[in-house]
Design a protein that fits this description.
- With 137 residues, the chain is α+β, with helices and mostly antiparallel strands.
- It contains six helices and three strands.
- The longest helix has 16 residues.
- This is Integrase.
């Protein structure tokens, strides 16, 4: 019997793809926003299962801190040939230093508000905060 990955499209908040593999007695599943990412992970997970290894989780699932998420964003930008311009690079560097050490599980609305207030106390104006938070004024 041939084992192949199963792909399911479903909607929660946004449309996403869930992929499941069952191979040589091993089972793994992950969820992705893009079908192509799901396909690539499934192929890699199947190869790992064929070698007798436990399939690893996706890059996003391994991210533990906000800084690691920023690193992942930078890697994705580089993969498509884009480098951040001076302003975005400075913003990402600031986010890497300040809330970047926070675990994603502890990064909530209150933590972001506290960061914004700390930046305001340091003299950052609304434009600076809007560029960091991704909002335009």
């Amino acid at each position: 019997m041939l084992d192949i990955a199963s792909f399911f499209q479903y909607y929660q908040i946004v449309r996403s793809w869930r992929v499941q593999i069952r191979r040589k007695g091993r089972y793994a599943s992950e969820t992705f926003l893009r079908r192509e990412d799901a396909r690539r992970w499934a192929l890699e997970a199947e190869v790992q299962a064929d070698r007798g290894e436990t399939p690893s989780s996706s890059r996003v699932a391994r991210v533990k801190t906000f800084g690691e998420l920023i690193d992942l964003h930078m890697e994705d930008m580089a993969a498509v040939g884009k480098t951040p311009l001076q302003s975005k690079a400075a913003t990402l560097d600031l986010l890497q230093r300040e809330p970047g050490k926070c675990r994603i599980s502890s990064l909530d609305r209150e933590r972001l508000i506290r960061f914004g207030r700390e930046r305001a106390d340091q003299g950052a104006g609304p434009i600076s905060w809007a560029s960091i938070s991704g909002r335009s004024s």
